[in-house]
Automatic annotation (TrEMBL):
Keyword terms, alphabetized: Isomerase, Rotamase
Name of the top EC class for this enzyme: isomerase
Protein name: Peptidyl-prolyl cis-trans isomerase
Matches recorded under Pfam families: FKBP_C (PF00254), FKBP_N (PF01346)
This protein's record includes keyword Ion transport: no
Length: 144
């Protein structure tokens, strides 16, 4: 077996492991009190409900966020960088775009994003492999 075949085998095994662990995690998470599941399968809970307006897909939002895998390992965090980030909602992963549109400005939500609404089978980092479920805590600071 050559290097390319070994890498493909490794990715397939890792994808299956991440996918199956994600299903178990999401099934356990969605029965927690206060967790809401959307039609697409996005899970979210309200940490703080703001009173501002909700953004639309065509808008750019200013957020503080903290993203981890289901083991709690951070893969991206504006909180750690101590600098909020601006994103056009139409340019982010589906789970983020859907979830942030549910948030009035001033809110903080936690999202559990299944791979189909995230990075699918792409390996983003050592913390976020193919078919990974992601957890984001998002503070919606404003609409730009």
């Amino acid at each position: 077996m050559g290097v390319a075949e070994l890498l493909l085998k490794r990715k397939k095994e890792l994808s299956e492991k991440n996918f199956n662990e994600g299903i178990i995690f999401r099934d356990e998470y969605k029965i927690k009190e206060g967790v809401i599941e959307t039609e697409s399968g996005l899970l979210y809970e309200v940490i703080t409900m703001g009173e501002g307006v909700k953004p639309s897909l065509s808008q750019t939002v200013l957020c503080h966020y903290h993203g981890t895998n289901i083991q709690g390992e951070v893969f991206d965090s504006s909180v750690q960088r101590k600098k909020p980030a601006a994103f056009p909602l139409e340019n982010v992963i589906k789970g983020w775009a859907e979830g942030v549109q549910l948030m009035p400005v001033g809110s903080k939500f936690r999202f559990v994003v299944k791979p189909e609404l995230g990075y699918k089978d792409r390996e983003i980092s050592k913390e976020l492999g193919p078919k990974s479920t992601m957890i984001f805590e998002v503070d919606l600071l404003g609409i730009l």
